[in-house]
Amino acid sequence: MELDEVSADDVTDLELRAVVDRSPSSLKSVVAHIAETPEDPLVVPPAFQTSSASERALIAQCIALRLPAFREVDFGGGEFTATEAGPIARAIATDPRLKAVRLRAAAFHGAAVAALLEAMGGGSHCRRLAL
User: Fold this and answer.
1) Could you list the residue range(s) of the whole structural domain that residue 18 is in?
2) How far is residue 35's CA from residue 64's CA, in Å, rounded to a whole number?
3) Cα–Cα distance for residue pair 97/99, rounded to 1 Å
4) How many domains does the chain have?
5) Residue pLDDT, tens place only, 52-61
6) DSSP type of residue 91
7) Residue 102's pLDDT is what?
8) Is the peptide bond before 96 cis (omega within 30 degrees of 0)?
9) What CA–CA distance (Å, rounded) separates 104 from 118?
């Protein structure tokens, strides 16, 4: 494959495999579910809510890589914090495939909302963000 033939989806697949490979065994099933699910909306497995901050960051990175494939991501009954917002805000700000997304959670921390709103500004291709 020529370098100019590599698509954004090819890069995302490689990045997803890297995230799954480096995830701890306790998260393998959660990360694999996110990486492989074709369902929309993406419902994040309940194990996410009891994960440590570093585990949540890894899960959020996986979600961010898949974000263009979903119109909605449901984080369940837990809180959406700045830990999750970081990778998702970067995806909103930089991924041209992402046009609109809805994020659901029981509560959104102020810093998380601020990061998401900041990502929407500037040159973001994402034009609709619903919380």
Assistant:
1) 3-130
2) 10
3) 6
4) 1
5) 898 888 889 8
6) H
7) 95
8) no
9) 18
Q: Are 124 and 97 in contact (CB under 8 A)?
A: no
Quickly list H helices, 1-106. Answer: 8-22, 28-36, 53-66, 82-94
Please, which pLDDT band fits residue 30 given cuts at 50, 70 and 90? confident
Question: What interhelical angle do 28-36 and 8-22 show, nearest 10?
Answer: 170
Angle (CA) 57 61 63, round 5°? 115
Of residues 62 and 22, more confidently modeled: 62
In degrees and rounded to multiples of 5, residue 50 shows phi and psi of: -105, 5
70: pLDDT strictly greater than 80: yes
Q: At what angle do helices 53-66 and 28-36 cross, to 10 degrees?
A: 10
Are 101 and 129 in contact by the 8 Å Cβ rule? The answer is: yes
pLDDT in tens, 78-95: 899 999 999 999 999 998
CA–CA gap between residue 11 and residue 24 (Å, rounded): 22
Alpha-carbon gap, residue 54 to 70, rounded angstroms: 24
